[in-house]
Amino acid sequence: MPKGVGRWLNDVEEEGEEGEPVETKPSEDDEEMDPIFPVMGPGYGIKNKFLKRKKFKEAKVAKMQAKIEKARERFREKKAWRKAGNTGPPPTVKKEPTKLPHTIESLREPDLTYVEKDDDELAFEEATDKYAKYYEKAYEPKVLITSSYKLTGRTMAFISELRLIIPNSEFFFRRGTTVKKMVLKAVDRGFTDILVINEDRRWPNGFLLIHLPDGPAAYFRLTNPRICKDIRRTRSEITSHRPEVILNNFKTRLGQMIARMLGALFHYEPEFKGRRVCTFHNQRDFIFFRHHRYEFESSKRVNLRELGPRFTLRLQWLQDGAFDGDYEWVLKRHEMESSRRRFHL
Amino acid sequence: MEALEEKESPIDFNVFVGAETGIFKGLNLNTKAVIRKNINSIKTLTRDYGITALAWGNQEQTEVLVACKNRTVQVYDTDNNEYVATQQIDVGEGPIVSLARYNGVTLTAVKSGQVTLWRNNDPLEINALHTGDTLARMRQSPVSPNLIATGGKENELQLWDLEKPESSLFKAKNVRHTMLNLRVPVWVTDMAFLEDNRTVAISTRYKTIRLYDPGRQRRPVMAFDWGEYPLTCIAPVSGSGTKVVVGSAHGRAAQFDFRGRSPEVPFHSFKGIAGAVRDIKCHPELSLTFMVGLDRFLRVYSLKSGRLLYNEYLKSRLNCLLIRDNMTAEEIIPVVQKKSVKRKKNVEKNEEIDVEEENKHSKTKMKKSDDDWAALTL
After folding, report:
1. What is the arithmetic mean of pLDDT over A104-119?
2. Domain housing A306
3. Mean pLDDT of B99-113
4. Among the partner residues B45, B249, B313, nearest to A327 by beta-carbon distance
5. The whole model's pTM is what?
6. What is the pLDDT of residue A18?
7. CB contact under 8 A, A253 and B271
8. Are B288 and B336 in contact (CB under 8 A)?
9. For an interface test with B, which of A125, A130, A258 has the most B Cβ atoms less than 10 Å from its Cβ?
10. ipTM of the modeled complex
11. Which terms under GO biological process does the entry name (chain B) (predicted)?
């Protein structure tokens, strides 16, 4: 017997007759309900083409027959109902309400480091950490934006748009300095954060965020950068009002820290008059950035108009110091990504 | 600081961890459940109480010495679960980097290099930093407690005898210049007295692991690089005179054996660590190693198999660790057993995990008999 066949048969054991998935009902001693995984189609895993086709055909025929049989049954029921002397439209069979489909996000494995409500240890740490002063509104952030050594057109455009988004930010040409030297200079000039956009093959691909004077620093991989032009918008739509910042779906302790870092790039008091909103949405460890403006059509109806740019971030590491020091968290793919449903942010 | 959480019947903690925030936790790993508790009350804490070093206060291990960032040493009584004494250290500058106990007297080392033995009338002071920037660590020899080792940034490994504190017993000499005739920088981060009572191993911020034999020569008898990131701590493996566990700032840890043809190849590398390792301790009898670090986890690994046996999320960034010597295998293994049963459905339940074998992870065993195979049809 070919190896694949045995494997397929093993899969079938879990299915009902006719290849329909059996819903596993949670037994009483099981605490959590097991997720319903997608059932592979007939013929899955069979390498023999003819056998595979045969299996598929059989399953298809069986499915059609079942359908016909069901329709006949329904017809018989209706006939019997009329015979009993009833008039009017026959009663309809109530459909079961469709369940919410599982997504990788909803099947997420619970993490040990989830942030709990009313955790005084966390509250104490956050009240005394390196971002505590920002969240006490003790200073206004001043952001230095720069690039990697060589700067080309698209990255330049991307940075220009970041400059418009982040209030009180300045762009400096890198001029071949090292990050560590830049940190010292920027502290002297009163900057509170440094943002370095790295580029590779003339395309932005890295996002380094350093908090001054002494860390932390985080490096993100930057993917799918879309400047305003790409989404058919003009930069003139971006006003100079301070935006509102939404940090969404950061659940773990690490996620909380990253959210604090990203939030502290912007001024703590948004100007709601400008109706600008910057969103960092975390989904499956990818942080999606979107920039919108609210548009009030009437007193009830509100639209969102995207202004651009867009980009996606993926955390690579978080360091304790300002680009110097021990790492608090490092993405180690083969050690950490043990499951598709395990996330860190 | 003296305020404790509600006083109940004392819990016999067998692991203590100190956090950067000043939170000091006791853990009781036992057969039923893991009890963990904050010993300090969070309400009275500030960042000044950040714990920088821990040490046992006596042979019976009923007292813990806790060094804080504000240069106080507190004595915590584990029998009554309370602090019994506090002492302010006013020697030198910077935080206390290490603590030890010699003949019932506390020994402290501060970042500016002063190692002080706090005898009642005349405290004995050693300046371990004639040259160099900062002192990184001081370690006491487990075999002869009068022997201590110091080292730091631009400060080579030195051995001192507390009975003869006038000058150091041994001062290491830097390795030869590089191929380009450049001086090799020095930054010792931690040292380990090996059990052969002869050699001392060090880890450096410049990625090297070195083995010194003070009886033979001032330069290291063995030196090799590991990885691309600074090494933060090193601990001797008990029961072997040649093995050490080394942790890095990038969240890597590995066991090395100085014996053999290729000592630079890790004997085991411990997987699953996310952040910098700050402290490593090996159990004196069992082949277990305990680690804490910036990723807020306490992890227990088997030294034989390199497997992660147990981890515990402790919420704060952890700086230092202390384990009780009399912890038995039964206190660790049941936790592992519980975890492995949870992990896979297909694992036969109640499968006994061999204590000797140190939990070779139970592989998924499909129940399959000949009848099953016979029943298979196309």
Report:
1. 88
2. 120-336
3. 92
4. B249
5. 0.81
6. 39
7. no
8. no
9. A125
10. 0.83
11. ribosomal large subunit biogenesis
